[in-house]
Amino acid sequence: MNEHTHNRVSRFQMISLVIGLIAVVASVFGAFTNTKQFFFSYLFGFLFWLGLSMGCFAVSMLHQLTGGRWGWPSRRFLEAGFMVLPLMLILFIPIFFGLHYLYPWARPEEVSTEKVLFARRAYENGLWYIVRQVAFLLVLIGLATRIRVWSVRQDATTDALPTRRARFISGPGLVIYALLGTFASIDWIMSLESHWYSTMFGVIVLIGQILTAFCFSVIMVSVFKDEPSIRATLTKTQYHQLGNLLLAFVLFWTYISFGEFLIIYSGDLPHELEWYLHRIAGDWKVVLITVAAFHFFIPFFLLLFRALKKHATPLTTLAVVLFIMRIVHTYWLVMPAFHRDGLQVSWMDFTAPLGIGGLWFAFFLSRLKSAPLVPRNDPGLQFAFVYAES
């Protein structure tokens, strides 16, 4: 990273930090006026940015295992993204104080009257919720830190040992991410409802995180495409491959999401339908139609065109749209548990995610400055651009 880029990144880091702190202070003020709304808005914002960090971690491990030209310009953005996980552990703490507002299993009066909640009380309770979340994030942080360490060490040596060790960690790391992420998605979102459950839900959440990370990769690569080290490794091939991956995960996410809906619709069981009924109540159906249009139909149609995927501007624009739709979808997952009768937008629905996002970006940029923008001395680099297009 040259001096000009370093100064620009530092400037944006400071701007992000200031915006984040102002938005957080505004949200804290809102907590005193509408406490329940604050905790739901905070949970929504937190889960999106945590999901981005987790998605960066998964995609980084995927590239460590499989290689591919698509990953070299974006790897350091992914690594900086998952290195925000320690900050996310700290930002999780406010949620621990709002469990009573968020989750029915945290309200003794409901547990005593609901048979389902009473039967789950040994697992779904405040103490074990906190223990599980802290343990989950500590495991991810430990794995992520080791992968980052070995990736950076490879920059200083031509010996392939650091890459082999990062790859060795990535295999079981992906399995751990999938298993723990499935259980975590139950705690974070599924348990917002008293009776609803789905075996596909964890997959939907994790695939959404990975899709968010790919969108973020495209955006970041385009933002830094004029940096000499990025420009030296970036061709139409990288954009084409990233576009193909966006298409693949848009299709996968849609397939799993529609499959879940189709099974629940066919079963026609009241405790399963409840999840969807108050997510299409009132104006929520407008949100769902928007997600269907801009998260699947339009991206699917456009990503079929090879020419679009080979050019930075249209592909980046589409990645930005998908990134925004990932925010909207997270909102649709969380907020109907609070506003069951229809969409009711609060100003804290903007300040809470903006505050967390500002802090996220400030920490992300600090990590991005701590290593070269493109990995050096990785043994895969000698084969990565042999057949690259100019």
| Domains, number | 1
How many beta strands in the DSSP annotation? Answer: 0
What is the assembly state of the chains in this entry? single chain
Shape label: globular
Largest sheet: none
Poorly predicted ranges: none
DSSP helix fraction: over 70%
Radius of gyration: 21 Å
Tally of individual helices: 19
Query: pLDDT average, as an integer?
Result: 93
In short:
It is built from 19 helices and no strands.
Defining key terms:
about 400 residues, mainly alpha, about 75% helix, globular
Question: Could you give the topology of this structure?
Answer:
Layout: H1 3-33, H2 35-66, H3 75-82, H4 85-91, H5 93-96, H6 99-102, H7 108-111, H8 115-119, H9 126-154, H10 161-188, H11 201-223, H12 228-231, H13 236-267, H14 270-277, H15 284-302, H16 306-309, H17 312-334, H18 348-368, H19 381-384
Can you walk me through this structure?
The protein has 390 residues and is mainly α. It has one domain (3-375). The chain is 74% helix and 0% strand. It contains 19 helices and no strands. The protein has helices spanning 3-33, 35-66, 75-82, 85-91, 93-96, 99-102, 108-111, 115-119, 126-154, 161-188, 201-223, 228-231, 236-267, 270-277, 284-302, 306-309, 312-334, 348-368, 381-384. Helix 11 packs antiparallel against helix 13 (236-267). 42% of the residues are buried.
